[in-house]
């Protein structure tokens, strides 16, 4: 039970805790690496994983609440070593509600050779709307990684960045969206890598990427079904 009097905070801690299981489920992390965070709506706070705790041992009450300068606000454990990076993203990208970090193998391999993943398949056009870019190399310990994430992704369609020789960071409107972006990043990283073993890989035409991205972001799924349906053949 949270000691902070913030409606919905306990539910958010439970959601962030549960989303870490998705990183394991999709093979995006090993041992205790990786983390998920979520902005606390209406407050200059975030919820993030504690440092070095086994995924099997994570519980909602072990989640850390930190402010957007990375300072511990609530929790008995040390916050993730990536807290400063997450905090910098939230401070500088107010539209972001969730941040995820993984060392998923295929995407991290692209980061190790400092190569962006070209938008060569329709799934990339849908989710990323562009190549997945490479961000600068930075060491853990301060907000340098966060600065690299923001400088790379601001004004970019992609919700994922390959931080050079480090791993993947993804952003989203909420933590679940950021986790989805991390899953999709690894999926397309693997597919494009396999394709390159068969031969040269051509990037999709930009006009086609634009159409794919617009359809997926604005039409795909249940979005159209959520619009009110006007009765047919009845005079208003």
Q: What is the H/E string?
A: HEEEEHEHHEHEEHH
What count of helical segments does DSSP give?
7
Give the biggest sheet: 8 strands, mixed
Domain tally: 1
CATH class division: Alpha Beta
Terminus-to-terminus distance: 52 Å
CATH topology: L-fuculose-1-phosphate Aldolase
Structural class: alpha+beta
Structural commentary:
InterPro entries: Aldolase_class_II_sugar_metab (IPR050197), Aldolase_II/adducin_N (IPR001303), Aldolase_II/adducin_N_sf (IPR036409). The chain contains seven helices and eight strands. Helix content is 37%, strand content 14%. An eight-stranded mixed sheet has the order 4-3-2-1-5-8-7-6, sandwiched between helices. The chain is an alpha+beta fold and 236 residues long. It has one domain (9-220): L-fuculose-1-phosphate Aldolase (3-Layer(aba) Sandwich), CATH 3.40.225.10. Mean pLDDT is 94; it is low at 224-236. It starts with 8 loop residues before the first helix and ends in an 18-residue tail after the last helix.
Give a quick rundown of the structure.
This protein is an alpha+beta fold. It has helices at 9-25, 83-92, 105-112, 122-127, 144-153, 175-198, 206-218, and strands at residues 35-39, 45-48, 64-67, 72-74, 98-102, 134-135, 160-163, 167-172.
Keywords:
Aldolase_class_II_sugar_metab; 37% helix; Aldolase_II/adducin_N; 7 helices; 236 residues; 8-stranded mixed beta sheet; EC 5.1.3.4; alpha+beta; globular; L-fuculose-1-phosphate Aldolase; metal-binding; Aldolase_II/adducin_N_sf
Annotate the secondary structure layout.
Blueprint: H1 9-25, E1 35-39, E2 45-48, E3 64-67, E4 72-74, H2 83-92, E5 98-102, H3 105-112, H4 122-127, E6 134-135, H5 144-153, E7 160-163, E8 167-172, H6 175-198, H7 206-218
Parallel strand pairs: 6-7
Antiparallel strand pairs: 1-2, 1-5, 2-3, 3-4, 5-8, 7-8
